[in-house]
């Protein structure tokens, strides 16, 4: 008992309450995330239009689908935990079961916190992207974090669950669905980023004649600079290849010299027609 690791500032009797509180807190965070995404959707429709509106709607819809998948995952995980406790505690109370399996309980709490934190960060990143104050890469990173924390939660639940448990099968299916929805967020984010950057680069509708002429001259300068740089890199590539061939040839010759040197084989010349035998 003395060598057993203790929870940080948490008595083992309180672990059971912590599990329930964290799962409830995670569910509440996800519900709040769904509400915030709906608010962002209506705000985007009022403040943006055209390509930007299309991109924002696609990203926010994929985030909504991901939140729904996470909500179902947390619900299924809660049901599986109740099943685990009921089947494993015997005559003990729920609190005693969690205290007896304190390391597993702490892992469960940590995984639940990670899922809720990932959902909150995703919504904040989506909000910044819609307001054009954040980076698209933040959404991609948050999606990867959610997939990782989901795997952590499934692994923590799977340790104590029966292999034939229906709730475990449902949880694994929910985990696959979360991963798929997270991949959809990444895909919609990348395509939206490309679409926005292409539009911003090629939109000349608001420019005056003088501004257009100036942009044209600056672009010509960039083209000439890039062509010069490209030519220099081609020359460099050619010199690198020449040196590579020289070194490769030298290594091959040295390797041949180091090998055992048998009697030199006769040099093969062009086969000549043998002379005709002279009659005596």
From TrEMBL:
Stretch list, region Disordered: 253-280
Record's GO cellular component terms: clathrin-coated vesicle; cortical actin cytoskeleton
UniProt keywords, alphabetically: Coiled coil, Cytoplasm
Biological processes per GO annotation: actin filament organization; clathrin coat assembly; endocytosis
Xref: PANTHER family: HUNTINGTIN INTERACTING PROTEIN 1 (PTHR10407), HUNTINGTIN-INTERACTING PROTEIN 1-RELATED PROTEIN (PTHR10407:SF10)
Gene that encodes the chain: Hip1r
Species: Cephalopterus ornatus
Subcellular location: Cytoplasm
Name of the molecule in the record: HIP1R protein
């Amino acid at each position: 008992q003395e060598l057993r690791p203790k929870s940080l500032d948490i008595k083992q009797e309180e672990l059971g309450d912590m599990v329930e509180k964290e799962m409830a807190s995670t569910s509440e965070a996800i519900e709040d995330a769904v509400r915030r995404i709906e608010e962002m959707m209506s705000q985007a429709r009022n403040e943006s239009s055209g390509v930007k509106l299309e991109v924002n709607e696609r990203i926010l819809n994929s985030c909504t689908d991901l939140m729904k998948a996470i909500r179902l995952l947390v619900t299924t995980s809660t049901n599986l935990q109740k099943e685990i406790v009921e089947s494993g505690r015997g005559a003990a109370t729920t609190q005693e079961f969690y205290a007896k399996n304190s390391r597993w309980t702490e892992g469960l709490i940590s995984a639940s916190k990670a899922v809720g934190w990932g959902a909150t960060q995703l919504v904040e990143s989506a909000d910044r992207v819609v307001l054009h104050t954040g980076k698209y890469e933040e959404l991609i990173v948050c999606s990867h974090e959610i997939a990782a924390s989901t795997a952590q939660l499934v692994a923590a639940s799977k340790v104590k669950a029966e292999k034939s448990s229906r709730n475990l099968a449902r949880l694994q299916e929910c985990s696959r669905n979360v991963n798929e929805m997270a991949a959809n967020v990444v895909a919609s984010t990348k395509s939206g980023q490309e679409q926005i950057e292409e539009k911003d680069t090629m939109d000349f509708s608001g420019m005056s004649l003088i501004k257009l002429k100036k942009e044209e001259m600056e672009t010509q300068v960039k083209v000439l600079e890039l062509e010069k740089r490209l030519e220099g890199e081609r020359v460099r590539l050619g010199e690198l290849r020449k040196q590579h061939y020289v070194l490769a040839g030298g290594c091959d010759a040295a390797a041949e010299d180091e090998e055992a040197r048998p009697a030199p084989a006769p040099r093969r010349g062009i086969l000549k027609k043998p002379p005709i035998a002279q009659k005596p």
